[in-house]
Amino acid sequence: MTRTAQTYTYLRPSAVRSTADGRSIGLETSGGATLAGREAHPSFFRGFLTYPQVTAAGLLCVADVAAARYYQLQLDSWRDPVVTGNGDRLRFESFSACCGVYARLDVLGDALDGDDIGHGTTNVDVNIPLRDALTRVGASDPLRLEVGPDEMTVTTFEGPVVEKKVPLPERWLRGFAETQVIASGFDLRAELPAAEAVRFLRALPRPGATRGASKGARWVVPAGRSLRATTRPVPGAVCLPGPERLTALSRVLRHATGLRIHGPAVTAGSGPVASAWEIGLPGMRLTLTLSPDTSRGFSGEGGVLDALAADESAEDADLVSVLLAWDPAVDIADLATQSGLTPQRVRAALTRLGTAGRIGYDTAEAAYFHRELPYDTGRAERDNPRLRAAHALVDAGAVRLDGETATVTVEDHSHRVRSAEGRLTCTCRWWAEYRGGRGPCKHALAVRIARRAAVTATAQDNTDTPTGATR
Questions:
Q1: Fold annotation for 3-168
Q2: Which residues does the UniProt record annotate as the domain SWIM-type (predicted)?
């Protein structure tokens, strides 16, 4: 696995501190992007928490996921959550070390009472002493939240500079890209009131109850105000892959106002799929998105490959990126109007921008949102082995097109790629195993790239030929 050292620099450690007005959660920020450009230590909010104990529990849940490895049970290196200010809310995000669980806490305006909420993205320091202090936060004590250094610290640089060099897997970046593609295909499948949600979640197995990968996916279907287990997928069912991964929600169950479950449409023949489990909390939402199996990280799902293989999506992404704002929701129709692109091309452009971590997807509001991470838009494309292999096949002349079918020759093997129901199928082992459930194989990608190149060449040829001229 490719790993790079990501360095976070903080003016001092985050902490729960005593103040004249009570106590204050000070979340120190590292370098990030804002409306004014890059800043070393951006400040996003300063004010009181309406629900201090709930917010503390939600932050701990996001931090728990960042430190967990669910496939091979062990605590991993501490990684600092990403925080994004969207003007009316703060979003805290993290991935598990195995990249199979994505956590996001949306702290909405009703939970924040203070200065205007800023715009931008950065990392916040969540250290062990802060975690210990957050567990002791009470419900009734006045509590301030400061996301970013306070003015005294900015002026005097009081306290030591704290630097963390974190080994950051490249699959995290690819996980951010894949989750927004996968979640955009979800719909609300079930909604439970608080009592039923707590009863259901507390009955799930704990970590360690199963070893290694899940022994087959579990499925649940709505049954009145609750959920009923089923042994196989049926229309309307939701996949619950690796149910022990939801135990991170136990920190917030006492505050839960309900549970909403999101997932894709399934049929009787469907395989395991991802799902999103959203706990409603006073003034906020906490969502855990689970990969299709404990052994599968989001980084290998392949949902972005079709968009990355489209030549025009790179130019479209450059155009759309200029139009992005730090709004709570990205308006596809508005971007289409401003850019002159079709909504379909706007979505493909957003997918490409997602490979740099610049786009997320909120299942609760069925909308994309804008964030900024320190990655370029070509990094995930360069680091994706299937896409690299597909381009290599095209460059080597291994693709032979023949109408709706194509032949891809790899060494002494030939694979047939066919169009079926709007997607490409292949005779290779990858397709036989996953049936498109983890994105296209390298042969299908190569055919798609070759066909687009052929269409472009034909159009250019027609442009170069004068009207009425013959060849």
A1: DNA Polymerase III; Chain A, domain 2 (3.10.150)
A2: 406-452
